[in-house]
Amino acid sequence: xxxxxxxxxxxxxxxxxxxxxxxxxxxxxxxxxxxxxxxxxxxxxxxxxxxxxxxxxxxxxxxxxxxxxxxxxxxxxxxxxxxxxxxxxxxxxxxxxxxxxxxxxxxxxxxxxxxxxxxxxxxxxxxxxxxxxxxxxxxxxxxxxxxxxxxxxxxxxxxxxxxxxxxxxxxxxxxxxxxxxxxxxxxxxxxxxxxxxxxxxxxxxxxxxxxxxxxxxxxxxxxxxxxxxxxxxxxxxxxxxxxxxxxxxxxxxxxxxxxxxxxxxxxxxxxxxxxxxxxxxxxxxxx
Amino acid sequence: xxxxxxxxxxxxxxxxxxxxxxxxxxxxxxxxxxxxxxxxxxxxxxxxxxxxxxxxxxxxxxxxxxxxxxxxxxxxxxxxxxxxxxxxxxxxxxxxxxxxxxxxxxxxxxxxxxxxxxxxxxxxxxxxxxxxxxxxxxxxxxxxxxxxxxxxxxxxxxxxxxxxxxxxxxxxxxxxxxxxxxxxxxxxxxxxxxxxxxxxxxxxxxxxxxxxxxxxxxxxxxxxxxxxxxxxxxxxxxxxxxxxxxxxxxxxxxxxxxxxxxxxxxxxxxxxxxxxxxxxxxxxxxxxx
Lengths: 287, 289
Hints:
The structure holds 2 protein chains of 2 kinds. In chain A, about 75% of the residues lie in helices and about 0% in strands. By secondary structure, chain A is mainly alpha-helical. In chain A, helix 3 (about 80-110) runs antiparallel to helix 4 and helix 3 runs parallel beside helix 6 (about 150-170). The relative contact order of chain A is 0.13. Helix content of chain B is about 35%, strand content about 25%. In chain B, the strands form 2 sheets. In chain B, strands 6-7-8-3-9-10 form a 6-stranded mixed β-sheet, sandwiched between helices. In chain B, strands 2-1-4-5 form a 4-stranded antiparallel β-sheet. Classes of the chains: A mainly alpha, B alpha/beta. Chains A and B meet through helix 7 and helix 8 of A and strand 6, helix 3, helix 5 and helix 6 of B.
């Protein structure tokens, strides 16, 4: 009689417990190839531009760009890069928040009521199809050219559509058996939304949020090109280029990339905390 | 046809149940004239070729699909009432565990929905996980468990609220033979302890014979009951049961009953149901649902 045998049967090998040190070492090893390529490109850039004696206004050397970044970093200077990067980050983050909130709201309403989906989806698709540049003069007019909100709204429009589309998909694409299970418990639609659909949509939400981090920066900078406060990265690019200070232009571009990385990394960090069960966030063990 | 109220010992009564699926202007008859009484505490297996409507019948009992005709009574109540009263525990072929919940949280899910207070549902979830011998895995996530362990979590979840009927739709179909036999023993052990009525859909003749009080043999096109084989193997059943002469006689009897139900004779004589064509048919059947 095997029924009495103690202990769990059909046991999977337990997830190996990985020490923090070991995990850091693995992460470092994973990042090594990318780091080497990055350093190689920078060195090659420095050496080739120097050897070809290219003029700085065509392509400055990385060392010149870093020097320009340092020289123009402090607040109060002509190009005040630190102030500008901060201002652009606030616009982008604000737009990301607005676009996310509206996108999630529309998705929840659309997933719940088919009628709402019929009304809202065509509007959302239409809004998503308009090249973002077209909205810039309108938003400057509505919210004020110097108001950061006019740039944040540009970012919000870009963030909104992928957020809505992804979250709707996450709310709707629930395995049919999961719905049968919930119905067998006589669970209400509201309970199913709360306990199944919303958790199911979380990975989709974070995918859209990471995408939104990049899009919000694009939206904010495009908005800035159409006029705004002096100390924002988009304006710095326009002004430094017209002053032939391409080293500063490049420094501003570097800061945009940096700002994007900061946003992206912050979201990835939150994602790991929020949905540790999701496949891409599992540290070690079976996957 | 009996129209008098079911005696207290009847857990499920199906009277003249028909099901026709309509897709566009095409109608497919899935079930015809199903009459069946399942007694309280009985273990009933539904067996038959793919497309015989056994999964459909299970879902009609569970009030997940409405029958086209006939009456379904669960312990004297209509099926819809029984579902609202949480009389059903369901186990599917896939474990259907929620990735974002730990093993313990998955088992607690029905109790949360049914509004049990936290202390009671924690105690109950732990008790059920002990019953399926997963007491050491409370904090694990489903992806950290093997297929057999996941299915045991699903069984624990189905039992937490002590449903009067446990409905199992090919729960071990995706498991290897060794694991499946262990799981069969486990289900019998749980059945003996809880006294729940079980309706078990399977493709496997040995599984049906080993587990059941009665095996309901169905045939396809249209789905109907062609035979009911009473399994008089002694309880409790164990590995010796699988080697007894009576067991082999009953396996043969069910196999012949299945063949007799086939129009061409012996299309699916073996218990191996995982052939491509039958899987395809099952998919078509699911699609219609």
